Amino acid sequence: xxxxxxxxxxxxxxxxxxxxxxxCMCILQSKPIxxxxxxxxxxxxxxxxxxxxNLQLLLKRAWIISTELTRIxxxxxxxxxxxxxxxxxxxxxxxxxxxNEYNMFTRNSSEEMHKFEKLLIDxxxxxxxxxxxxxxxxxxQILKSMKSCIxxxxxxxxxxFGQLIELVLTHEAQNLLRQIELSxxxxxxxxxxxxxxxxxxxxxxxxxxxxxxxxxxxxxKICRQDCFRGLYPQTLRTLASICCVEEGMHQxxxxxxxxxxxxILTDNSHSEATHAEAAxxxxxxxxxxxTFTQHLSSFLENMExxxxxxxxxxxxxxxxxxxxxxxxxxxxxxxxxTMACEILLQLNAMKILLTACSDKRLVDTPYSRDQVVTIxxxxxxxxxxxxxxxxxxxIQLLMEMLFEKSSSGNSAEVAACERVQQKSxxxxxxxSRDPExxxxxxxxxxxxxxIKLCRSPTERNNSDSVLVACLAALRRLxxxxxxxxxxxxxxxxVKPRLVDSFLLCTNMEESFx
Length: 513
Prior knowledge:
This protein is an all-alpha fold. The chain is built from 26 helices and no strands. The chain has a domain of about 120 residues: Up-down Bundle (Four Helix Bundle (Hemerythrin (Met), subunit A)), CATH 1.20.120.330. Helix content is about 75%, strand content about 0%. Helix 6 packs parallel to helix 9 and helix 24 crosses helix 26. The longest helix is centred in the first third of the chain and has 43 residues. The two termini are about 50 Å apart. It holds the Pfam family INSC_LBD. This is INSC protein. One of its GO terms (molecular function) is cytoskeletal anchor activity.
């Protein structure tokens, strides 16, 4: 379950309310203080928070219960009966609190949900009674015989709890989608889409639930209604999140989602924000990391107009974020189908991307440079690409990318820098089959930089993929200019088999002399 990293004191303050509620429930046994049905008071309580807030509270409570169940199993293994019992009492309270809190803000829960609520509460009570008896006995044989029963009960509680949470989340997804489908109010629809987006951020499992309940279909209906134009960016952002799972992709294909995205991207009356979010959906569904994109047959039918619109978006981008989304979509498409590279060449995309790289307002992070160099690497398989690269001063850019370093030390940024170094070396290796490119690269001192990356693990952040790419590029350039290498470099980095040079460099200790 997705949890935002926050300061430990702040987390403790947030958890404090749940823990004190838990102690209250322990005393009151989930019974209301008043015996009368105070409908007005109940309504006030349930309306204090939005649906989104209530769901966040529910998910947090569920995370606590799930964690506690795991800890109980660990303590049970060590026969720490007193701890097991106290944690069982706490679980009992958390379960009752969660069910009460949920029933306070939902009015139409199903019979099946009520059935699982009762089963879970009964099983938790039974569990507490079991562990209480274990605390009161000191007979090892009795404890040993009861342990299997407790393990069985714990497993059953975990199953009931999982099924109840699944039903609750499905029910809430259905409610939100029903609101979106039935409401003519922009405000209500916007609120429901916002809550739905929050759910998608809780992980792939929730995205699957939303997709199975028809979330992709419902959201594309919004994207086809002019009265909701102002909600297109938010709707498309939610769609991008849902389409990280296979169920979402299948739904997108069924409702001609690609055609809808193509229409949005090519419609100049839409805002830049709408175009950027449509590009984000394209980037998501064409991600090379997904294994379930093969069925997107309709994408090929619309690819030319999508690529054209994305190139235009890169050219006219007003910010680095917009450029990043558009270039990421283009980079993924070049993996998706080789025909895309030919289309990009025809559209003069190489010049547009190389020009953008000199504008720090647009290309200001390793993430953006990663997208650009990915496109260059994939386009470099085309013979016509070499002249375009030279004309656009692309060799100089690739040389600069070999020096890519993280300024923050953030792990994601470091990984992006490694990818930039690797792909720039790959691009150089591919383009250097053209003598003119190789000559330009040698003039710009690419060989000494490649040698440095091979010999110095810190320069490449100990990345093996960067090392392999640099060795390949160095060998290609060495063919064109054997005099550019010292004999030791030639003997160690060029002459042996690639695998032998690789092993030599990975075992090499850096000299600080």
